[in-house]
Amino acid sequence: MTVVAQALDLIESTGEREYEAEWHRLEGVLLLSQHVPATARAETCLRRALDIARRRDARSHELRAATSLAPVVGWFSEGFGTADLQEATAFLAAVAGPRSGSTIRSSRR
Fold first, then answer.
1. Residue 41: alpha-carbon gap to chain centroid
2. What is the pLDDT of residue 97?
3. What is the DSSP letter of 72?
4. Which of 5, 53, 55, 96 could anchor a disulfide with 62, C-beta 3.0 to 4.6 Å?
């Protein structure tokens, strides 16, 4: 978390904002990965990342922020058999490759 805080401080001091959305996304992901996840803080970071990416028209960063945020807010609680969600799941799996295995999951576990 220290590196993320330093990066965000550097963004503020230099005005270089190309990767700002990604740093906020990383902060959110790290907050979720803690032994006791800080879900509310993580959601704030992920929503900020999504907003920044959208304002900058940074589609790749927007996609990463949205896919990190979706499980947190439980956007998809039904409809997993629909063509749209099946296509999105297949796309995310293809983009993620073998390293992450990202899929759209139900908020009901």
1. 13
2. 60
3. H
4. 53
Kindly state the tokens that stand for 58. Answer: 């940074």
Alpha-carbon distance of 28 to 22, in angstroms, equals: 10
E strand intervals along the chain: none
**Residues 6 or more apart from 80 whose CB is under 8 A from it?**
86, 104, 106
The residue extents of the domains of the chain are 2-73, 76-109
Quick check: 38 and 31 in contact, CB under 8 A? yes
Tokens at residue 66, please? 């949205």
Structure tokens at 26: 């990383």
78 contact partners, CB below 8 Å, separation of at least 6: 106
Structure tokens at 88: 């999105």
Angle at 89 between CA 4 and CA 1, to 5 degrees: 10
Q: Tens digit of pLDDT for each residue in 49-64?
A: 999 999 999 999 998 9
Please tell me the total number of residues recorded for the chain in this structure: 109
